Amino acid sequence: MLRCEGATLDYGSYRALSGVTMHVDKGELVVMLGANGAGKSSLFLAISGLRKLKAGSIRLGDHELAGRKPSQIVADGLVHCPEGRKLFPGMSVHKNLMLGAYVHRRDPEGSKAILERVFEMFPILREKQHQNAGSLSGGQQQMVAIGRALMGRPKVLLLDEPSLGLAPLVVKQVLAAVKAINEAGTTVLLAEQNAYAALKIAHRAYVIENGRIVMEGDPDALLGDERIRKAYIGA
Q1: What's the first-to-final CA gap in the chain, in angstroms?
Q2: What's the rounded Cα separation, in Å, for the pair 73 and 51?
Q3: What is the pLDDT of residues 24-55, one digit of tens each?
């Protein structure tokens, strides 16, 4: 469903991605593992049209994404939930969520139905929908960020470090929500440093280092790999 072929991305003289080739099939939950600066966020920015490739191809189904505007890519069905949440802290939770539905503004009834699903998934957001997003806890803000992405009606959802900076119990809640989103039919590409928890919910995984894919496999194989355990799990 999503395929990158030879994706190469530069920031000036710095090469952030070097010939990345990977794919996510329809219905999969695929994890992208890597340390800070490995290239996970750069790959996501390239896929979502926020950074222009130097070379290579990114396709969603039969559509080439490279060169398309981010708003067009969202309309095509690919939505990016960025690292650090990127909410509008002075706006209400409700307004933050509804911003995710902007590309579907001609279908307010459809957006209303999806908003109800978001509230069912994250009941605390219904309770706090009229509060400013900046007044919420970190975990609640991450729920808003995921909910806003869902309002874009993704066929493919990119989630960049959704557990970053959260308490262990909240990490468990957030990743359980990610698994539920996938099981409901949304294809997910998840970037995570919390390797153990991420691999427990994934169908497949890639490891990226210095802008290159260095390993691919099923979660059990990667969890059993001594190099992966030492580098990402600490065991």
Answers
A1: 34
A2: 13
A3: 999 999 999 988 889 999 999 999 999 999 99
